[in-house]
Prior knowledge:
- With 238 residues, this protein is an all-beta fold.
- The chain has one domain.
- The chain is built from no helices and 17 strands.
- A five-stranded antiparallel β-sheet has the order 2-9-4-7-6, with no helix packed on it. Strands 10-16-11-14-13 form a five-stranded antiparallel β-sheet, with no helix packed on it. The chain has a three-stranded antiparallel β-sheet with strand order 3-8-5, with no helix packed on it.
- Strand 13 (184-191) and strand 14 form a beta hairpin.
Amino acid sequence: MKKLLFLLFPIFSYGQATITAIVTSGNFTTGQSVSFTQTKTVGRLYIVVVGISNGGGTPATVALTGTSETWTELGTAGGALNTTVQARVQAFRFNCTSTLINNVTSFTFTGSLDGDWFIVYEITNVLTTGTNGADAIVQVVASNNNSDTNPTITMASLSGRASVIAVFTNDLNPFNGTVESGWTEDEDDGFATPNRGGYAMSRQNTSDNTPSVTVASSSWAGFAIELRASFRRIIITN
């Protein structure tokens, strides 16, 4: 009698960083102190994107503070969008190592125009090693002082099952973007006197390294962030 030998082949499946927009807010005034109250959960990475504008000089940068929170700047993009307005988008990360119940995070729009905005992302299944979650960030690519239709940021090739956040600012009111297929629109704001807009979108499990948003011709700047998953391994046999 012949014996049949069945072999079990392991198939390795890796997770992906999951992006959730948990707070979006806009239309803040010059010099206004802003805060948001949010429970921050251990093992999760938090990213805050802030949009700032100024009618004259370069917009002042902001700094985030909160009890038991350390916020590290990830990247910034911006410049003179036209002859009447300059704008900037900044991003910050915080790796939560101990759950903070209803913690308050604060910052101030100093020396800016009315209409500033921000968005808060909570990232799960993300690598949390490195200083303040530094290893979670694969790349941050900025594009400044552009003037054309359909803002596009060209990143290096993405790493496996990538998760990406892309943010933009322009000189339209509102930004008035149409999200690229497969992406999620998280923010589309606009403010007047002078006109400037803000836009944010995200995508998970993607190889698209040229995030783009459809919009009329404008002066714009922006950047994209690639996140690294925690590579939680699932083993399936067949």
